[in-house]
Amino acid sequence: MLRGRWLLPGASLALGAGLGAALTARRRAEGREAEGLLGRLPLVPAVAAAAGPPALPGSGRTELTKYGLPGLAQLRSRESYVLCYDPRSRSALWVIEQLNRETLSGTSDRAACDFQEDDSVHEYHRATNADYRGSGFDRGHLAAAANHKWSQKAMRDTFYLSNIAPQDPHLNQNAWNNLEKYSRSLVKNNKNIYVCTGPLYLPRMEADGKMYVKYQVIGKNNVAVPTHFFKVLILEKETGEIELRSYVMPNSPVDEKIPLERFLVPIESIERASGLLFVPNILKRTGNLKAITAGNKH
Length: 298
Prior knowledge:
alpha+beta, 8-stranded mixed β-sheet, two-stranded antiparallel sheet, 16 strands
């Protein structure tokens, strides 16, 4: 019965199936109010050759790093977002951006933006426009261009291919676009919205009854095609309450008439599937957290 279904840890993902259960967390605040999450992220430049061996915490054996480390977390801080790059998939692990009334206002012109390679990524690990050509996939934004009308440069930065993933055209232009529009609409009743978006590569049970993680790659650079995408919305309300909404959509055609709430999932499912953590970080800043999942009133 489960054959051919994608599985999210703790729940099965079937198109159109409502997922989620209510979660409300209340903990004592740690002495200060929640503030902008984006400004508190640890930002580092692209990894470059160091003058000496890097120091490793908890170890005095610096000789192990005499010739450097072959890889480190690749963070990028751009005008409109912060990104963690995955050189193996040729795309991002996650992208986080801040939305409010100011960021959505402006005269920036999407027509003046072009998709471009990210020169800060090593050429071995970089996607190119040629990889997408003839692939059958759209160049799908993770941080959406329309979220950053406040600055032409901010909008242009969203067109780096490090902020792009291969996305089913029908999904990109319909249901996913609706989710992006809905995210923007929430600024009317919230102080700030922090949006974290990224790819998922979920296991699937096949005919032999075993679980596999399989995904297509495109182009000469083998750009990974995600099986699904997630979007986590962290809403800062004027009252100080933090509201959390987390969505997962398959990277395939989705009927845009299906209500977006049907794609709500428990945040724990995304945390387990992606290897990322959201709730512990939020609870370090506030004890007033409410998670909205399928079945909750909006």
